[in-house]
Design goal:
The chain is α/β, with parallel strands linked by helices. The chain has a single domain, classed as Alpha-Beta Barrel (TIM Barrel). 34% of the residues lie in helices and 20% in strands. The chain has 13 helices and 16 strands. The protein has an 8-stranded parallel beta barrel, surrounded by 6 helices.
Amino acid sequence: MVRPKYFLPSEFNISASYKKALEEDYQTFFIEPEQHIKNRYGIDVSSFYGPLKIKNPFGKASGQLSTNAMQVKADIEGGLGFTVLKTVIAEGADQKSEMEAWKIKAPKMVIEKITSQSGYDGYTVTWKGRGWEKSLAEYLDFMDESLALDSSYPIIPSCKYHLPKPGEEYRKEEYTYTTQKILDIWKKHRKSYLVLEKDFSATLAGTEQGSEKECVLAWLKEVPEMIKGSVDEPVYLGVKLMNTLLTDEFQRELVKTLLAKDSTWLADYAVCFNRLFDPNKEFEGQVGVAYGGYDLSDRNLWALEALLPDKPGRLISATGNICSGKMMLEYALRGALNGQLHTFFQLPQSEYAPIEGSRIKKALHELLFNPQKGLVAGLIYIREKLQRPDDPFTFLEVTSLDPSLLSEL
């Protein structure tokens, strides 16, 4: 069992005036919460997803909650910073896919409480599905409709490409055909170069080839080059790194190899990390499913600590049990510029802020304004620990801060 060093307390002890203000704001809905936070607290919560400016660091991860344009519209109206679309499975011009096994139509999801090995209670969502179960053509229609909703809202497509077993060749046609099709839709709505996320699914950890160290390292080295070389225009590429079934130390080895400042890895940013995999758990007749909770965030945070006191040499998008503003800040102290959430949007209503509005709005309000563990309270706490109680302060400053300073003050 790995245990990260938590740099922040379980609840934030901040000055009485700010605590009183947050207790008031926690009960109040704001149309533009980011502007209110700047005006009342002198704090800027904006950040970046890759090269894209985002108004707050919370976004929706690729998954069952980003499979249609109505869900994306709800994200926009709910105030999220960005949305990553469900992961499409690459195809060739013949509409065939080497990763056909990842097209599973299994929309049923079950939310469960889960206790980590360290004794913390959290939540996990379980389902049998993997990637987008429909055709690439249908995904392109979905992407087209989603990008048309708002020209300024960051919407990022996600794709899973062919990953060969040892000794096999890559099906390069899938890379070329799929990336070009995604690029064509992107250019229809966006002027910037394509921003694309490459997904290494958590369920890869349960495959025979996914359990071999050499195979994982080969994929991570070769796939970014394959994607970037598949079209004639620049691709700003993010790679979602998986939690393998290999040793905990190997997870840290991945971080050091790929994310150190002197790394030559061709990916532009990394999503850290996909969910854990339990090869023995059964769900709906399937043995072997992915899971989350505090075991996941513990391993993720511990792995990212491998680079401290330095920060990653790539932009980082965090994912894994981001259940509070406090957890987002723990990732930020390890260099993450944003957090991708999935499970948090499916919790019982009692877990969200007591305001009127959609589930997305309530969830975001909880993440921002909770007086004990919200993002604003955490940023005030850090600012006061740095002895800058009323200075302007930004979320981005935390991502470059040496976290040991908080322990020393």
